[in-house]
Amino acid sequence: MMTSTIFLGMLGPWQIALIVGAVLLLFGGKKIPELMRGLGSGIKEFKDATKEEDEPGKIEDKK
Questions:
Q1: Is 28 left (phi over 0), alpha (psi -120 to 50) or beta?
Q2: DSSP codes of every residue in 37-55
Q3: How far apart are CA 63 and CA 45, in angstroms?
């Protein structure tokens, strides 16, 4: 977690703008909401999976 904070601290506003511009050029404006939805659902699944490992006594049937 500390390395991500250090990495983000090294990025300035111009570097962030350049990255955002490159993403817009590569994927286009219409694809970005779809990509963000996929990223969000992936993060949610990861959090759910780590939460299940933290609570070994609790068994849920998710479908």
A1: left
A2: HHHHHHHHHHHHHHHHHH-
A3: 13
Q: 19: which 2 tokens?
A: 């990255």
* Residue scoring higher pLDDT (7 or 53): 53
Two tokens, residue 62: 């998710």
DSSP3 helix / strand / coil % (the chain, rounded to 5): 75, 0, 25
Q: What gap in Å lies between CA 26 and CA 3, rounded to an integer?
A: 27
The distance in angstroms from the start CA to the end CA of the chain is 31
**Single-letter amino acid, residue 24:** L
The model's pLDDT over 40-61, given as tens digits with 9 standing for 90+, comes to 999 999 999 888 777 666 555 5
What pTM was estimated for this model as a whole?
0.48
Give yes or no for a contact between 32 and 24, defined as CB atoms under 8 angstroms apart: yes
